[in-house]
Amino acid sequence: MAGALTLVANPGSASRKYALFEGDRERAQLHFEWLYGKVICTLHKDGAQHVVHINVGDLTETAAQVAAILQDKGALAKNEAITCIGLRIVAPSAYFLEDRRIDDDCIAHLTALQQRAHTHITATLQELQALRAQFPQATIAGISDSAFHITKPDYAWNYGISLEDADRFEIKRFGYHGLSVASVVRELQQAGKLPAKLIVCHLGSGASVTAVLGGKSIDNTMGYSPLEGLIMSTRSGSIDPTAVHALKDAFNWSDNAVSEYLSNHSGLLGLGGSSDIRELLRRDHDGDHRSHLALQTYVYNIQKAIGQMASALGGADGLVFTGTVGERSNPIRERIVARLHYLDFILDSKINNTTEAPEAAATISRLAHSKPIYVVPANESAEIARRAQII
User: Is the pTM of the predicted complex or chain greater than 0.85?
Assistant: First the structure.
């Protein structure tokens, strides 16, 4: 497959990410996001970053711009054809525990699951329709964000409900962020740094902690949907169902309204009034109590999850921070690790403070006093491209 052109599409509720690969070599990345009330496009190419001026009113329109931007910026020749597309799939079902070529059957499964993971699947279906219109000759592969977690032991899949009901309706702890964790494991393996018992903290707008044993997942804090687990930028994380019913009754909300509230108006946004870690840190520094409490709650939530995963592993030999926050926010890393001495994790504060968005795995632990702590760039795009090319 060397030399073939693969487009990676990673749709989110507030962004669209694309990457163009020639075989396993990345030519360029495009990132569309809502910023200051409009859609902004950023191009990453040849180690440089550029803002691309576009006239797009909605994220559903971005796929139509991709080829033209790549051609205009010299990443794609006009006589070159994209023959393969890898599309990230986040969906709660056994059907999507493996990568699949997108066909009518696959689309029917996604549509049937739309109400169960509305935010992610709606964006995926919109993106799929747009990609088919723009690249009608390309094979589209749906790349599972849960497949990495298929190695979890049987008992890590279950909720405390009837097994018959769970099996019949597929109410299982599928887990997510598998593409990110798989890319971290691959990076550490290639560098000869993969420990036997590894805890991976993916901290971005979504957040999760994964226990990795011998390079394989044995648990993840996300469950049936990406809403479970840690407090996130705008997602509540785990919450008592009775509390959800209380909210629903208090506001006389529909199911969709409750889902919207928990997915898009909760988490750090609900606790602190902002979903931006940088803004909360600024306010905290200026003495804002609400921001301080939000960050304390967020960090405490992650510390507890790390302890859970250490228990699942029977100890821990290494700790990884990845995702936008994990890679860029040295204050958050410092606050998290501050209470992990019992696991023999101790930061080198000087190295941590100078480590931001490294291009390869960086060690931030104190030499000879700590088990290794790494900052590893998540590379979901390369993982998607690699798997799309072999499906």
Answer: yes
